Amino acid sequence: MSLNMYLFFDGNCREAFEFYRSVFGGEFSVIQTFGDGPPDMNVPEGEKDRIMHVSLPIGSGVLMGSDRCSAFGPPPARGDNFAISIEGESREQCDEVFAKLSEGGTVKMPMQETFWGAYFGNWTDRFGIGWMINYEVPR
Fold first, then answer.
1. Alpha carbons 101 and 78: distance in angstroms, whole number
2. Whole domain around residue 16: which residue ranges?
3. pLDDT tens digits, one per residue of 94-137
4. Which of 34, 37, 111, 128 lies in disulfide reach of 43, CB 3.0 to 4.6 Å?
5. Could you give the 3-state DSSP secondary structure of residue 36?
């Protein structure tokens, strides 16, 4: 299992990650816009160029981020513009960690298969900290 940081932006994710890349070097391992997602996401036309997901490997970790889309909630505010991201090693491990850490918190997305080919869930724990857990399903 590994822990990484996930950052949320309101339209300037690309600019922020270009800056982080200029500082740390390297290349993005993934960069996708909301326009790359499936049509049933119902992303407003003016937000399709916003970043849905970007990953920048830094040392043994990964800095990840996205813009918030208005179809999925309000823009991020300082203090709720990050989450701890867990990369799980199995579905069972993800289910166990999700169940324990989400107890007494607020589940935003229960563990489920996603269009990007992962088993994923996210929540805010009882202390107000945002979490995500992702398991890349072998193909």
1. 23
2. 1-78
3. 999 999 999 999 999 999 999 999 999 999 999 889 999 999 98
4. 34
5. helix
